[in-house]
Amino acid sequence: xxxxxxxxxxxxxxxxxxxxxxxxxxxxxxxxxxxxxxxxxxxxxxxxxxxxxxxxxxxxxxxxxxxxxxxxxxxxxxxxxxxxxxxxxxxxxxxxxxxxxxxxxxxxxxxxxxxxxxxxxxxxxxx
Length: 127
Ligand SMILES: [Zn+2]
Ligand SMILES: [Zn+2]
Hints:
Blueprint: H1 3-11, H2 13-20, E1 30-32, E2 46-49, H3 54-62, H4 67-80, E3 82-85, E4 91-93, H5 108-113
Antiparallel strand pairs: 1-4, 2-3
This protein binds zinc ion (ZN) (2 copies).
One zinc ion (ZN) binds near residues 43, 44, 86, 87 and 108.
């Protein structure tokens, strides 16, 4: 299963149950990821969308293109306003199988396993 799909699954209601579920066999230990490719943190990695710039808004309102074309223009502009945020940690949860930051007292690892909902939407590249 791809990391993106796994993350999506873990964000669903049964997924939250799983994250908070601790037994003797299932302890959600952090292990160093051995993957060559670093994956984004399941908790903090994502993207935010900034509002359109003044110049972009002006371009839209000044345009006399048909509304279907205007919608396409707006979508294109919004895509340019996306910013990827968050980290690509070397740690991952052995049981969840997703990357998580271990930094700080209130790390992504801890918050993830409290069942908290990440603030950011999934990165567009993960599916
Ligand atoms: Zn993180
Ligand atoms: Zn876990």
